[in-house]
Automatic annotation (TrEMBL):
Protein name: Lactose phosphotransferase system repressor
Name of a matching Pfam family: DeoRC
Function description: Repressor of the lactose catabolism operon. Galactose-6-phosphate is the inducer.
HTH deoR-type domain ranges (all copies): 3-58
Keyword Transcription regulation: yes
GO function term, MF aspect, one: DNA binding
Keywords: DNA-binding, Repressor, Transcription, Transcription regulation
InterPro entries listed in its UniProt record: Carb_Metab_HTH_regulators, DeoR-like_C, DeoR_HTH, NagB/RpiA_transferase-like, Tscrpt_reg_HTH_DeoR_CS, WH-like_DNA-bd_sf, WH_DNA-bd_sf
Keyword Transcription regulation carried by entry: yes
Domain of life: Bacteria
Length: 253
């Protein structure tokens, strides 16, 4: 395989997967680790990818959100563990604001029946919590649901958030990194997340490790706004350390 062919193969693999390690690329191309490291340095200098410790990652932003139905089946067990830890962090008597997304939907299932006041920002979570028995107080915001997502957005949602204050907000992540902050796939979703952060005293970000170190195109705010991050064992150690250095408490479920 020529250098040019190998470079094309490496660049395509990193673009499609988002990131790749040196051993993975060596196995893909049949080249040595040393050759792959030189190739990555060359491609990084050309602006084809970003060199990171142990491999490379794409420079393209993750601007397209996978469908909710597909995400609901991804890392399902990890999301349940994360949700369990988030639920443990929420005390009885709290007022809780619950973002949209698949991980936050798992949190909603665990909060059902708890002695809390909760306002979910998705139709799915509203449905789950509307069946709650016992002392749970459900508050329903206004808004327009995004097609196939159920996430509530728009002026009525923003007005609902502006009118209230919460003890804790549980925020889902499209992307979170120490360098690029908290990001979303959609500008409307980013506006809602900004309003969530303004309306709550404590921000808990709940996400599996695949979202850490990734960046979507709609900026929400710096990662320092997140007081606590609950993630799983797949979270990149270097990104976890960088977030902790900025003051975020990271818990692995």
């Amino acid at each position: 395989m020529s250098n040019a062919d190998r470079h094309r193969l490496i660049a395509q693999a990193v673009k499609e997967s988002g990131s790749a390690t040196v051993p993975e690329l060596a196995e893909l191309t049949g080249a040595s680790d040393m050759t792959i490291r030189r190739d990555l340095d060359t491609l990084a200098a050309q602006g084809a990818l970003e060199r990171v410790r142990g491999g490379a990652r794409t420079l393209l932003l993750r601007g397209e959100e996978p469908p909710f139905a597909l995400r609901a089946h991804e890392a399902a067990e990890e999301k349940r563990r994360i949700a369990s830890e988030v639920s443990r962090l929420i005390a009885d008597g709290e007022t809780v604001l619950l973002d949209s997304g698949t991980t936050c939907l798992e949190v909603a299932r665990l909060l059902r029946g708890r002695r809390i006041t909760v306002m979910p920002l998705s139709l799915q979570a509203i449905h789950v919590l509307s069946d709650a028995s016992g002392p749970t107080t459900l508050m329903v915001p206004g808004g327009r649901p995004r097609a196939a997502e159920g996430a509530l957005t728009g002026p009525l949602t923003l007005a609902s958030l502006a009118a209230l204050r919460f003890d804790t907000a549980v925020v889902g992540c499209c992307g979170l990194s120490a360098a690029e902050g908290l990001t979303a796939y959609d500008l409307d979703d980013a506006a809602v997340k900004k309003a969530i952060i303004t309306s709550a005293r404590r921000i808990i970000a709940a996400t599996d490790g695949s979202k850490l170190g990734h960046t979507a195109h709609a900026y929400v705010g710096p990662s320092a706004l997140v007081h606590t991050l609950v993630t799983d064992a797949t979270a990149p150690a270097d990104e976890v350390a960088a977030l902790e250095a900025l003051g975020t408490v990271v818990t692995t479920a």
